[in-house]
Amino acid sequence: MKTIHSTRSITIPKEVTVSVKSRVITVVGPRGKLTRNFRHLQCDVSLSGKAKVNQKLTVDVWFGTRREIACIRTLTTHVENMITGVTKGYEYHMKFASAHFPINVNIPDGGKEIEIRNFLGEKIIRRVEMLNGVIVNRSESKDEIVLTGNDLEKVSQSAANIHQSTKVHNKDIRKFLDGIYVSDKGVIGSI
User: Fold this and answer.
1) Residue ranges of the chain with pLDDT lower than 50?
2) DSSP assignment of the chain, as one string?
């Protein structure tokens, strides 16, 4: 069964500029610019109101199935995450867990890459490159790194790449709990 009309709108803050052209949404804020393509979704995306005053982004679906209507909330949530990213930014805190061999981490190239050494006593050096726009730094506390960036998906994917590089193979993972794990995540300054 199809629903005749479904809609959802979000208000845009004053310090953010949003532009829409054929379902390609660009968000510009004080921290930078993010662009995302939503052309694969069958919906109407429009801006209403004057810029910097009372602007709203509205997403409409006409005669949509349940799956098409569910895409409305997904699209508006992505745009809200983009707005939060260009105003506040995102950060992920990751902690090192090691039972016997301490994990050594080196951050060359200005935070665009991380080198993990001595994981489970192995001689191999694991190198993980951060995705575009993500910076990794050491935290004030011991055995912790912080990933920061504007795009939530790139920051979280970079954290997942670091975590997956230190997965334990061919051993009992209940006993060998060594690795680098996400301990906190949120907007910059809230943690």
Assistant:
1) none
2) --EEEEEEEEE--TT-EEEEETTEEEEEETTEEEEEE-TTS--EEEEES-TTTS-EEEEEEEEE-HHHHHHHHHHHHHHHHHHHHHHT-EEEEEEEE-SSSPPEEE--GGGTEEEEE-GGG--PPEEEEPPTT-EEEE-SSTTEEEEEES-HHHHHHHHHHHHHHT---SS-TTT---EEEEEEEEETTT-
